[in-house]
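Async update (no meeting this week)

Hi team, since we skipped the sync, here's where things stand on the single-chain job. The sequence we agreed to prioritize is pasted below, unchanged from the tracker. I ran it this morning and attached the output directly underneath so nobody has to dig for it. Comments welcome in thread, and please keep replies under the output.
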Amino acid sequence: MSLTEFEPTLTAEEQALLPSDDDVRHYAEHGWYLSKKIFTDDEVYALAAATQRYYDGERDRRLPVRPPKLAYWDPSKGPVQRHNDYVHHEHDGLGAILRKPLIGAVAARLAEADEIRVFQSTLIHKPPISGEPSNIVPWHFDKHYWASSSSEKMLTAFIPFHDCGEEMGTITMVDGSHRWKEIGADDTVVRHFADRDRSQLEEMLAENAAYNGAEIRKIPMLIPKGHVSFHHCRTYHGSGPNVSGRPRQAISLHLQDGDNAWREYPLSDGTLAAYNHDVLVRRTHDGRPDYADPDYCPIIWRHRAEQGG
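Output:
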């Protein structure tokens, strides 16, 4: 894609929805940000409707191969918490809304980046089943799973399809934890939280807080419909059970700045850390996985100054 082929613009109304300078400072200090209403009611309704079609089996394309750590719920897995990756790629109805330039512009302000690309999108359905173990998401931060990414500016937008509060098991941040110096990390941290012992993750959080002389201050994100919670890739977060009586439906839209690229990250067994993209995306001229492949990692925002405009 040439620079002139992607020239996002915002309306005056959308410009007013961008984070203020104080918001950007808050994000830098605390590691999270709750947006203004950046999706209209019609867009949220369209997300929910497209999600139902997706769960009914509608796809515009399929992944050519199945990556080794793909999250991909299907009905055979039963009434557990559902996670489905790459929904922005497989379903055009979902992808068109998730590529809304405003969400990229908000992310660019927070990350202080000139370009924002999709990194991953995960559709999530947390059923209202008391005691369902999969509903509890233990404390973790996303950069652990993105060790093959060079950037420290990556961030996630959590987009619920409804008002989302504590009773629904909303996403909860550990305030300021993105600024902690990490200790006690080993190769196990690159494994997804679903593949790790919950008590070990709780212990890691406590140890890192103690080492940094920090209080573990947990902030549940109370997200009105159409608003979005953003968090830094090193902010510890998790979520509790859904006791609301109705499903919690959301998309975690993981975002990368324009400078992010694949990097070598050796593990103790001599292999390199990998991400699911590595078996899907095109290769750079020197043979590395290209995390700027527009088929899987489309640009959703580029500052106009970068386009010579």
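Quick observations from my side:
The radius of gyration is 19 Å.
The first strand starts at residue 32 and ends at 34.
Reply here if anything looks off.
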